[in-house]
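Holo model, calcium ion. Inputs:
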Amino acid sequence: MSNNLPSIARSPIDRSSVALARASLFKFVGLLAGVFFLASYSLVYLAHDLDRTEEVQSAFYTKKAMQSLEKSMRSTVKDYAFWGDAYKHLHVEMDPDWAYVRQNVGTTLYTDFGFRGVFVVNDVNRTVYAVLKGELKSVEAEKWLEQSIDAILVKAREGVETETPTTAFIVVGGIPALVAAAAITPGTDPTVVSDDRSPSVLMFVDILDSAKLEAIGRNYGVDGLRVATSGDMGTTSILPLGENGIAGSLHWSPSRPGLRLLALGLPLIGVAALLVCLMTWVILRRATAGAQALDASYTSLQSGRAALATSEARFRDVVEASSDWVWEIDADWRFTYLSERFEDVTGLSRDAWIGAAMDDLLSTELGSLSQWLSIPNRLPAISVQCRYVDTKGQERITRLSAREMTCGGFRGTATDVTEEVEARRRIEFLSQHDALTGLPNRTRLQEFLDGKLKALPTVKHPLVMLSLDLDRFKPVNDLLGHAAGDRVLNEVSSRLADCVRHGDLVARVGGDEFVLILTDVSSQEEVEALCRRLIESIERPIEIDEQEVFVSASIGIAMAPNDAREATELLRYADIALYEAKAGGRNTWRFYAGDMNEKIIERRRLESDLRFAIKHGELRLHFQPRYRIADGQMVGAEALVRWQHPERGLISPDTFIPIAEESGLILSLSNWVIDTACRYAARWPDSLFVSVNLSPIEFKRGNLVERLQKILFDSGIDPARVELEITENVMLEDAEGALEIMHTLKRLGVRISMDDFGTGYSSLSYLRTFPFDGLKIDRSFLNRLGDSEGDESIIQAIVGLGCALSLTVTAEGIETAEHLKLLKAVSCDEGQGYFLSRPLDTGAFNALVGIRESTGIKSNV
Ligand code: C2E
Ligand code: CA
Ligand code: CA
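Output:
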């Protein structure tokens, strides 16, 4: 530079002042260079740090994503495999109709969950059921997967006792896939007994193709998640799949916030440095050219300061260009610096906060921030999640990274992560809650239950589990559609939630099944009061599109520690109690009792005996004569079935009809009854009709009309001599369907009467709308006659009603001469009862109609 100095004559004083100016300028330039170097170094360090954190975090989330995928598949396969119905239809017998056609384990697994392969492998490891991309196929799982699945089957079966499913990453056609498998067990279904074959295994296969990986990555905020190629090996963004990466590895592209910061910051610093150099050069020229060395040196110092200010401004720009805010605190934990972004991000004023204690603004979950920062032996750079309240009063979450300064105090950046944390929280919530009602799901229930049971409930402070199932919900779905069904479920859910206390849990564990966990009730009376409240609240009409829908509920109760201490046992016992509540007429509750299990086994035995009985002629028909009250003439007889059990003797229908209805045996039983009754009656005098009882189940299933038509034809009886007795339940469950069937039945020429009138809703509209020929007053009215005056007038009113609607009114259960007298007085048409005749076996009945026809009642009247 000295070559460029103008060669003018200088005085010694002048020369020394120039040298002085030069020397101080060089010092100043050195200082500036130092400052620039420091700024660049800090920036690079900060950027590197940001990238490192981001890399570690994205690796964490990728791993989490895969774990959560495995967890969710495990829980899905578990839901399907540990299930009584699945055991019956996939293991005991492979029933593709149940599984595929009725959509129990069918297309929806592909459409809803995206499982490209669904397999059932039986006890001898043959694939007996395969659904590929939602289509039923006949293919061996091993063939489709192109590898042996023995290890997976062994692991799945090992988990049978503990009902633990297994998962494994494999490669299918060069693409990684996740397989979840579980041995099929009866679950908590008390009605299914397991056989001693090796269990079948249910297997779901999820192919992790690029679209799927992308989507999973997006959910966890990881960009470009894909299968790693050989070129990606050796980089840090690699996650091996399966043991030792047997199923390949995943690779992703972590975002590089640091790089972006550098791209922005370094050029700015460079430009600033260049400008300063340029300026220094100009100043130097001026200094050497200027006459007044002191003046010149003074001026150059001034402009040096200006340069420093510019550089600071540039640095500030860099900091402000980032979305984070920068902070500094002194050794007393008070803010000494806050970048401008602080105001944009938090909405708070910088002036107000500079000088204020950091702990007043920010708090961590573990305590105060100052405490956290002063933990000794921390890593040099640290980050922690803090919360603060913004100007709108909203809580916000920020991730703070901090570095200790050599002069004491800390400095660092703060990144707003409120949205990110919210999104994660939401994912967490969704995985633990039912999407329709927002109630906790089975997963949450399990966690909650485990936690409560770990706290060891006592007899004094027990844990009460209610298993609640809606009655009459299915018809709502069938008749009003699923949207209405959903609304009913939502309404029921909020009513249930209203009935329990804060701290209790209401979970939805199936279509219309709920589980409630209560910890704050101690006595049986309290539990019963709650059950009553729950049922009453559910029974209140639910308004759907100006229509009132009625549902009800049955509840089973089990308590810890009295009944069980383990979650699965407790759930099973509550289910058994629920089953008893349903068998006990629904709309009620039952506490679990030790003998319930035996009762269920007993019931099951009776069911299998009944199956045998129907086939092997153990059923008997008795006939109970029906008389015209006015003149005592016998007009017909009701066929009543009995069971001549080889060991237990004669069993009454009240015992076995419910079992037949529940097991579906009712169809073959009823076929036998109608057929036998018609064949007998065909031989009776033409003036006598026969009436048979139908079960509501027969209206729902089993082509009643065709069956009846065939029987009428085979027996040759005049259809006008056949009467069908049906109860109101038929109409309650599916009024429209029932009406249609009844009209068709009427076209066959048979009569229809409403049985047990007065016990149910006794809705008059049914009598008016449906094609009834008669109604039978339930025997409970006559039974109670002595007790209440009201019943007499009710009987009178029913007879009047029947007359008005042209229905033949029959009174049941005439047990005394007084009963008969009363019925005669109110002009009831027909009657039946022990006083007139008990149900007779066929021999006795034949004798009655063949030998002493039309006697019987006269002597009694
Ligand atoms: P239900 O239709 O109300 O039949 C009348 C029941 O009342 C019969 O009981 C009969 O024996 C009894 N009974 C008749 N007169 C008197 C009386 O004066 N006093 C008293 N206390 N009882 C009287 P059973 O035979 O035990 O039948 C019970 C129920 O079983 C029947 O009630 C009916 O609902 C059902 N049931 C009977 N047979 C069949 C059948 O073949 N199919 C279907 N689905 N259900 C049947
Ligand atoms: Ca009847
Ligand atoms: Ca009856």
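The longest helix spans residues 12-81. The pocket of calcium ion (ligand 2) is lined by residues 638, 693, 725, 755 (CB under 6 Å).
Archived with the compound record.
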